[in-house]
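Go through this chain.

——
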Amino acid sequence: MSMDRWLACADERWRDDVETVARSMEPASSCAFVNEADSFREKAKTEGASYLGAIVGRRDAGVTDVNLAAAVVEDGGTPHVVLVRRGASGSLRSRALRAGIDLVVDPEGLQVVDSGERKDMDGGPSTSSPESTALRANATDSSDDEANRAPIITFCSGRGGVGKTTLVSAAAAVVAGWGMSVGVVDLDLSCGNLFSGFGLARGCDLARLAATGPDSVDDMASIGVRACEGVTLWGPCDLPEMAEVAMPLVAQLVRCVAGLVDLVLVDTSTTFTDAVAQAAQLSDRLALVSDGGRGSSAALARMGGLSVRLGVERTRIVRIENRVNPRAKLDLSSNRAEVGLEAARIFRASEGGDEVSDYLASGEVTELVEIGSDFTDSVGTLLAQILSELGRLPECQEAERALARGAQRRRIGLFRGKREVV
């Protein structure tokens, strides 16, 4: 079996890039290179399940890298398909997304952690021995800036309809009620509608970043839209086709917003785009949301594994079970064996029923929070626990009561079922 190896195809002079990315996603892995495109496709189709996945790098002749990666996706047989391209443009990433390619990675600017030897599958040892890297956002922040910035919580799901956007909007309103300033970023760039829960007709067009540039704090503050008292919204794009223009600037945007507010909440698209990946890498907590519906376990497994391959530490990943019966017993065994979820703490958000849907549809999320319910109480409880862990819980009675509710509900001990992180 080759489960510690990637199946790879790239011209010789681009193989360093491929191995750099491969080891960034799985440090102990190696690459088995196949020279010819047809042979690579055949092997990926027939033996791909025994590899970590397929990686395609630059090819200077014959079928292009993106077309080859798309063909491998179409053929099936391999669990993941990654495209490696220096200076990958927004249009290339968009094209790859439409083709079903899991990830497009630019190897430039990655941080070095190790080095190793590569061998060809249909040859001998390679003449080059590239340095492998940890796959991180191309961060330039100093350690002081990181310590002083607001915590970032990114909500992902891997499937639609789990109530992720409802959670984010309610969470923003709850925390604003505690006196914190909140920056909400809608990274469903093409089809996001987070603004509607606050009664807004539109959000903040992130395509404007291409013109204003995201490096200036003043520029960031000027294009944000006031959603309600204490909450400022950035995103999505007014025109779906402009998503690729904003996508490369997401990491800079999130960093800038984190310097403007007390807390950043990031809503995401169902698909794990490059924009979502950038936010996930920067997050202090990556919240994987599920609702127990059909396909939830598979989606959680995909998101957990992908998050780890992106370099998100397991201890930064949490799970949120949404729409649960507050009186139902917590299942501590679910997904414990999945990659990335071994250390994931589980939080629960209660079923809100038609009341929640009605208030959100009317753009009255702040009113929903003000009247209170099992749903909004549970959202406050999970936020209080996360902020307490991060050392950012505000000093107010409402936040302290929410934290106390969480401690009371954990009488059975959420950590009893946890496995040691390996």
Q: What stands out?
A: Residues 374-389 form the longest helix (16 residues). Residues 111-144, 411-422 have pLDDT under 50 and may be disordered. The domain at 5-134 is CATH 3.40.50.2300 (Rossmann fold). The CA atoms of residues 290 and 321 lie 5 Å apart.
